[in-house]
Design a protein that fits this description.
This protein has helices at residues 4-15, 43-47, 49-60, 65-73, 81-111. The protein has 112 residues and is mainly alpha-helical. It has one domain.
Length: 112
């Protein structure tokens, strides 16, 4: 059984997009249907840097989004086309945001 303070922490992290749908703390192997959309770097972003880079590489190579979502997210775009497209697009958008803004926060954290 979780203590009240533990439950408050979980609730706060969940609202901020740091908790996966299963209720576990996000790891590099977990992903949300939609990544955080705020203007600050999140734990989710940090845990998914490699995913973001792979998405950017695939986009630069003009790879078919259906293949990308299958390889990177383990999703079948034929079985869940709308969800697969939403996950792909939202994570690619977040990856692009990281190249313009998020990386600054990432670098600041590593320089201090």
């Amino acid at each position: 059984m979780r203590h009240r303070s533990d439950q408050n922490t979980v609730n706060n992290l969940s609202q901020l997009g740091y908790i996966s749908r299963s209720g576990d703390v996000v790891t590099k192997d977990d992903f949300l249907d939609q990544p955080p959309a705020g203007t600050v770097l999140t734990a989710y972003d940090q845990a998914h840097l490699k995913l973001y880079v792979r998405l950017l590489d695939a986009d630069a190579e003009k790879a078919d989004w259906r293949e990308v979502v299958e390889v990177l997210f383990g999703l079948d775009a034929k079985a869940e086309p709308e969800r697969a497209q939403r996950i792909y697009t939202s994570h690619l958008d977040r990856a692009k945001w990281m190249t313009k803004s998020g990386f600054c926060e990432l670098l600041q954290g590593r320089l201090h």
